[in-house]
Design brief:
This protein is of the alpha/beta class and about 230 residues long. It contains ten helices and five strands. α4 links the parallel β4 and β5. The chain is about 45% helix and about 10% strand.
Length: about 230
């Protein structure tokens, strides 16, 4: 099955480069291009895209607001958003995840990394690695977040002890396979715990679990993944 992609970036040359790269892959196809967030939302709906490759800084409607509109629209429930950042320490990274993005990638990533990121996010997984995403979230959370309401710790009371443990590991950037190895369970069991935590916490995807893990204080900036 071909993954249908909408490109959203206000720079035509950047869109052209991404289009050439994405269309070179046999399983990926750019179905539309948007120069601002409003167009991205409209095109995600009209093309029935699988994924929007979203720049944050765009005119009229920026990528953050466009991501919110897409992820909160029930008609677009199957559309995933992969946010592109110009700088690795983009101050909007956490806000993008809170808006519903399933992950993010720096524009300086290798071509193969971009193609794989599209595949991962389009399949419903989050692009959250210990080396990249966790570090960026840590940096974002180290800054004052005056516009973000902290998640009440009581919200985690719906989870079992095991699910809380799994949530913390997700927050540290571990994959299902990593969690399974750490807890000495099967990858399927680890995935089941993750999915149950998502359901109980009303999280759209794994990226939202990371945000909850940090905002609830279950995981703190600077915490390291288990060895």
């Amino acid at each position: 099955m071909t993954i249908r992609v909408v490109l959203a970036d206000d720079q035509a040359l950047i869109r052209a480069g991404f289009r050439a790269l994405i269309d070179s892959a046999p399983d990926l196809e750019v179905v539309a291009e948007a120069s601002n967030g409003a167009e991205a939302v409209a095109l995600a709906r009209s093309t029935r895209a699988d994924l929007v490759l979203m720049d944050i800084r765009m005119p009229k409607v920026d990528g953050l607001e466009a991501t919110r509109r897409i992820t909160r629209d029930e008609d677009l429930a199957g559309v995933h958003v992969l946010v592109l950042t110009t700088f690795e320490l983009d101050e909007y990274v956490l806000q993008a995840l809170q808006a519903g993005a399933s992950g993010f990638l720096g524009k300086g990533a290798e071509p193969s990394q971009l193609l794989e990121a599209i595949r991962v996010v389009a399949q419903g997984d989050a692009l959250l690695s210990p080396t990249a995403t966790r570090g960026l979230i840590n940096r974002a959370l180290a800054q004052p977040q005056t516009d973000v309401d902290a998640v009440d710790r009581g919200r985690l009371s719906v989870l079992t002890d095991r699910e809380r443990e799994v949530l913390a590991l997700v927050g540290l950037g571990l994959s299902n396979d990593d969690i399974a190895e750490h807890l000495h369970v099967s990858p399927l069991t680890a995935k089941t715990h993750v999915n149950r935590a998502m359901t109980k916490l009303d999280a759209r995807d794994r990226a939202q679990l990371v945000v909850i893990a940090y905002q609830s204080g279950l995981v703190r900036a600077g915490d390291l993944p288990p060895v």
